[in-house]
Every structure is written in C-alpha cells, then in structure tokens.
Amino acid sequence: MRPTNRSFFTHVILTGTLRLFAASVWITLPAAVLAQQPSSETATEHRVDDMLSKLTLTQKIDLIGGVSTWYTHAEPSIGLRSLHLSDGPAGMRSGIPATAYPAPVALAATWDTVLAKRLGAALGSDAHARGVDILLGPGVNIARAPVSGRNFEYMGEDPLLASRMAVAYIQGVQSQGVSATVKHFMMNNQEFNRHHASSDADERTMREIYLPAFEAAVKDAHVGAIMDSYNLVNGTHSTQNSWMNTDLAKKEWGFDGIIVSDWVSVYDGVAAANAGLDLEMPFGRYFSQETLLPAVKDGRLAESVIDDKVRRIIRTALRFQPPDTHPADSLFSEDSDAVALEVTLESAVLLKNEKSILPLSFARTCTLAVIGPNASPAVIGGGGSAVVDTYKSVSALVGISDYVQAHAAENGRCRPRVLYDSGWPANYDVFAATRFDHGLRQEVFHSRDWSGAPQTSQREHLNEDRIVSAPGSSIRWTGTFTATRPGNYFLIVHDGRVADKHHVFADGKELTSPRTSLIGELYYLPLPAPLKAGQVVQLRLDYLPNDTEVFPGLGVLFEEDILSDRARSIASHSDAVVFVGGFDKTTEHEGSDRTFSLPLLQDAMIRNLAAQNPNTIVTLTGGGNVDMRPWLDRVPALLHLWYPGQEGGKALAQILFGEHNPEGKLPVSFETAQEDNPTFHSYYPQAPANAEEPHIRYTEGVFLGYRYYVTPSANPSHIAPRFPFGYGLSYTKFSFSDLHLSSTNLHPGDPLTVTFTVHNTGPVSGSEVAQLYVGEQSPQVPRPLFELKSFTKVNLKPGESRTVSLYLDKRSFAYWSLAKKQWEVDPAHFTIYVGDSSESLPLRGEIIMHDEGTRK
Q1: Extents of the domains making up the chain
Q2: Is the confidence at residue 31, as pLDDT, over 90?
Q3: Which of 265, 376, 557, 842 has the smallest set of CB atoms within 10 Å of its CB?
C-alpha cells in the first residue's frame, strides 16, 4: 500500500473540508473530524528533502529528462532508482505480451465504476509483473467529434461519466503500487496536425467540459502523474502552459505528482521548465544541461524550480513502491483475462433489434454465416501507442464457431454449422472479369519518369501476370472502360511487390483520395462520381517497379458486385448472417483522424449481404459513430463492439446467443450525419492550411454532444441524434417509477437525495443504467437544458424491483462564472430528470434553489 497522497491533506488544510466520493456521491466533512497527516507521509517528505540536498545542479537537471524510451535517470548516489514507464490504457505495452483489454471508450460504455476499478487493478497487477512504475493511462479527453483518431482511447463526451470512470480506474491501478497517468492535458480532441494546432476555448467551456475529469483524477483519485498533450491551448503549447500546469493543477488542485510530457512534445526547454513541466520524455532533449544550466546562471530559470521537479520525481519513486516481485509471479494472468472478458461483455451496445431477431436460438438457427473483413483475424484495438501484443486473441469467427460447437447438442432440429468468408471478391477474379474496350496498351520506358520511346504491346487483362523489364524502367498501361450499369465503380490495383509504386488516372485526373489498402498491396480507389450506363472512362496506370519483374493487377468493380461469390452463396443458404466490420488499427489510430464513413467498400458489402439474407446482423468495431445511412434501414440488428480486446469473439458469441444480455450504453451521442454534430463547422482550423499554428475554435462552447441536441436555443433546427447519449437496448425491459426528492427547497451546498425505483418488466435478467440529469429552468447564462449529474448500474432478475438513491451536491447545480471566476449556483427553479438515456427521461421533479443570503 502506498502512503496517503500529500495533496489529500493539502486540500483539507486549504479548504477546511474533505470531500469523499463513493458511487457518485459527494460527502462534505469538517476538517476537525480528520486526523493529522500520517507520520509515514511526513517521513517521506523528510527523506525527499534529504535526498534532494545531496544533489548537484547538474545531477538534478539530468533527473528531469528521460534516459531512454521508457526510463528515467537513476541516481545511485542517493539511492534513487530509475522509473519505468509504459503505455497501457488498454493493456501493457512494455515489450512483453500482456492481456489486451477493451478500449477505454468501451469501458465507459459499461457505465460500471466497480468494474472500472477492477480493470485498473488488473492493469496495475500486469504492470507490477513487468516492473513498470508508471502506467500511461487513463486518457480522459472528451470526444468532441466522431472522426478524431484517438477517441477510442478516451471515455466519451460527458465530463461526469469520464470523471467517475477515470477515478475508479486510477484507484484500481494505484492500489497495486503503480502510478497511473491521466492524459492528455488538455483539449487533445483531434489528431490532425497535433504538434501545431491550437485548441481555443473560453474558461467556462474548459471548466465545465474539458477539465472536470482531470480535476477529479487529481482531487478524488490522487493520480500520480499528469501527461501534457501535443497540442497548444489558446495559443500556448501544453508543456509551456503555466496556467494549466502550475496555477490550475499544482496550486488550485494541489497536485504534488509529476507532470510529464507526451513523447517529444517539448518545444522550448526554459519555457516548459518555468511553466510547470516536471519531466521530459523520452529523452532530455530540452531539459538538458546545455539548455538549462545557462538559464539558471543568467536568471531566466531559478534553481528552486528545478528542485521542485526533482522533489516530485523522488516523491513518486518513494510513494509508489510495488510489493517485491516473487519468482513465481506470472506474466500471464487468467484473472486479468477474466476481467477483460467481463468488460467486453458489459460494453457492447445493442443499437437496433427489430422483431427481436436477437438473441439467436439454436431452434431457429441451423446455419449461421459469419462474413466481413473484421471477422478474422481478431480486431482487438485501435492503432498507435494503445496497441497491445497479446498472448491470445479470440476473433469473431473463432468465438462464434467455438460457441456453436460447444452448444450443438442443445439443438435437436439439426446440427448447427458456421460458414465463413471474408466477403471480399477475389482480386484475380475481378482482374480476369474486367473488360477493357480494346484491351490495354502496355508501354515499357527505359526511364523512371515515363519519358523516351517506349516498347509497346497490347494485352487483354492485367491479372498479376509476370512482366519483365530492364532495371531503371517505368511502365504505363492505358485503356477505356464502359459502364454497363449506372452507379458507383471502383478501380482495384495490385502492386506486384511491396516497394513498387503506382499512380492511377481516370479521365486525366489522378485518383488520390480516399485510397484504401485492403489486403497487402491491394488497393481500392473509387471513381470520383457515379457513372451512367454506357459512359466511357479513360484509365491510366503509371507504374514504378522496384525490380526487373513485377506482378501488377488492374480491374474495375461495380458496387453491387462488392461481395465474393462464396459470400453470396453462404449468405443465401444460411438462417442468419453476422457481418463483422468497422475500423481496425490501420484505419483508426493516433496521429491522424479517420473517416466518418466505414472503411471503403463496407457499406456496399452490408447492402449486398442484406439483399441476400434479410436476417443480416451488423456488428462493428471502432472508437465511435459511423455513417449508417447507406444500410441501417436494410438490416434488423446492429451491435456496436467498440474495440473489444482479446476476448472480443468469445463475448460476441455469448451476446448473440443470449447467454449474456447486452448492457452497454452509449458514452457519446451518435449523430445521423456528420453535419449534425455541433462541432462540424469548427472542427477544422478556420485559418489558412499553411498557417504555422492553426487555431481550432470551440465555437459550440458548453453545448457539446447531447447538451446541444436537447437544448432548443442551441439547436433551433431540432436536429435529433441517430442514437442518443446513454442509449442501449436489452433483451428485457425496464421501467422507472416513484421519484422522491429529500427536499424541494435548497440553498447552495445543501445535499439532495434523489430516490426512485427501477423495475425489470421483461422475461430475462438484465442490467440497466439509471441516469440522473439536472437542468436550470430559466438560467441567467446560457446553459444546456440538462446535464448528467449522477448514475448507477442496477442488475435485476425478471420481475425484480430495486429502490435507488443518488446524491447531488453544490457542484451538481453550478456553472462556471466567467465574471466571478468561480463555480456559481443561481437562485432558480431546477428540474431533476431520471431515465435511461438523454432522450428517455420519464421521471421529473422540481426543486427551488434559494439565495444563500436567505438561509436562516
């Protein structure tokens, strides 16, 4: 057990109160009831002082810069060990395989703080087994728009939900003697141009939307480290932002741990040092003797500032002391795997289930087709630093097939079978079937730029045939294609070797975007506009071989043919089809944003499958919403899996066949069209594309996500989301009743207890998330109609009821006053809403908040 965090007592001394959080309840206790700071913490501070006093200035500077990718400097002369850091918001990335948990957005979809703490403890245990001192997670940046490439690493659009899940996660990690790291501080809500883009918002927007999860991590969970982000905030790099790092985190919140840079996110060493950054990773490029010694000598940087950074590093090394590693400790943990499975089961969100097609039953399902690009191999997570190398991973195909075989005896009607195909048409079939009007003209040039007199020949197809050319040559194929049917067409290009390069032109214009590599060096490029029947297109493929022999391919595919012959056959002969698609680590990852539409061709594949079998169930992986308009009305069921981790296939099978009732709820609103999102017109910078520091202005303010959709003044067109925040279907039904408020007349700071009953009115056991929202009726400043202020998860048997009590404090009614620079509660009428999503709130009650001055 680590000693109690010093900031805990600092907060008590400064405020005279202690606020304890448990299951979304704040309890305010007078400081008089608290014991004095434990002697163990005092002893730690004395030891920190003693170790610091023995260091020279150069030794201290060395300690505030990393020594390698994952390690800080050790200082043997004072007994200071090197700290080992590791990525790991969804599993350890320490160079040793580990359990791959569902992505953090999936954890948020469970709305289960108890489970979040268990997952954190499992991560902490995994870290301990690998000698890791500091885990670089959780991420708590708010999901501002669906295309942000790193949304899957975060916990949705709501600050209260993100706060409660993050606090539990951190408490779990740190219970194992490992420091958690809350990141990325802050407003890292996009991945494009992330080193240079500035996220610009007023303080109220930051305080109410983007800061609460960081604040809770510090004040409630006593997180050991904060990681600064790559982006600028209001024109200043996060690592150089003294308001964020010093004024807010260290002084106002009482944070006494380490503020660490994201990897290679320091741009000015002296500015970052003075602004409150404590540790530069992975190396001391700017936090170096060459940069900082002259600054100390000429007075630009006080040595006491460096002392504070070293003090925090030493304190962290002493505070987080994991238990001694036992020789029998295992790097493979069945307990961790069990937690991963539980999170996966609780996180899947059932979004559509017409005619109760789910759960599947063996009485109705003899033959089940599993089709789609993500069915096999397993898709466990998004890309970038969250990638986890696992000991095992269960694909959708394997999970479903194993489940069917294990339960085959339950079906007396027939022996159930699972049939599989990826769905992609074989590229050689497409190449062979493509009819160019007069064949293809082949020109081989003795240059690398298609210049000079070529060697010319004619060929009917380009079907990965062996073509020999001289070293230093380039090749060109030209021809025309006539559309036989109206609609969308795609060019398929196969690079014969990995290092080969090509350029494709249609009617003289190069096809550059979007371009999707599906399998190896196979590329699908959409023609820019739908073709009319009989329309002729001039095609050209310029090819740069990397060797003297190549095996290129070129073909044209109509959208209704985007499905293999085998997939068509097994779909039409099956009782139901499970399509497994969505994004993966190559199409959704840090460093760039993704598309709102599904990866290329998947829309057409779903439509074509649904045409073969009306019982087509769509399951998707990804960090958030996608454009469902091309196919949603053609399929009866939709299950969102997020990134399900290593146990994804096993959990999917249990949910499809009803062994586990789906219980996930959306942690983010799902819009119908990207244009419906309130950030659509401000997500990209409103400055020239070549601006050195493009500014992204958060013009929606506090009206983000459901706050926008439910507020008429912010959303005068009454745009509705496709699926609202907090939404998720179940195989059973729930009702809410008997709302009771402990008081209907309050003063700011008075506690309020909200009690109500949740009843399972359906035929099977299930879990419901009771959500409590608060709204001011006639606010003096623009406010959302209501905001989430508490929640709890309830598991009920068929016919069972349970009385639930949720608690609200002053902050539940407050907004940030820009004029007063503080949290403010106005005297007003407030409405309490209770239900199961932001658009399903059947219970309502009113309270009157009186002015503080009227208190007797």
Answers
A1: 57-319, 334-425+571-676, 429-561, 732-854
A2: no
A3: 842
pLDDT in the model for residue 495: 80
Is 262 annotated as catalytic? Answer: yes
Superfamily of structural domain 732-854: Immunoglobulins (2.60.40.10)
Q: How far apart are CA 677 and CA 845, in angstroms?
A: 30
The kind and range of the H/E element at 305 are: helix 303-319
- 722-750: burial string, b at 16+ Cβ within 10 Å, e else: bbbbbbbbbbbebebeebebeeeebbbeb
Q: Return the higher-pLDDT residue of 499 and 94.
A: 94
Burial of 214 (0-12, 13-18, 19+ CB in 10 A): buried
Determine the CATH number of domain 57-319.
3.20.20.300
User: Which residues, other chains included, contact 699 with Cβ-Cβ below 8 Å and sequence gap of 6+?
Assistant: 681, 682
Catalytic residue (choose from 262, 421, 561, 676): 262
Q: Which CATH architecture has domain 429-561?
A: Sandwich (2.60)
- One DSSP character per residue, 483-531 reads -SSSB-EEEEEE-SSTT-EEEEEETTEE--SS-EEEETTEEEEE-SSPB
Q: Which helix (H) or strand (E) holds 14?
A: helix 6-15
Phi, then psi, of 146 in degrees rounded to 5: -70, -15
**What length does the chain have?**
856
Handedness of CA 652, 166, 584, 708 (dihedral sign): positive
Coil, helix or strand at residue 68: strand
Q: Looking at the domain 334-425+571-676, which fold is it?
A: Rossmann fold (3.40.50)
Closest residue by Cα to residue 92 from 492, 806, 587, 645? 645
The string of pLDDT tens digits covering residues 319-330 is: 998 666 555 568
Q: Which amino acid is at 298?
A: D
Confidence of residue 10 (pLDDT cuts 50, 70, 90): very low
DSSP symbols for 596-611: SSPSTTHHHHHHHHHH
Residue-wise pLDDT for 731-740, tens only, equals 999 999 999 9
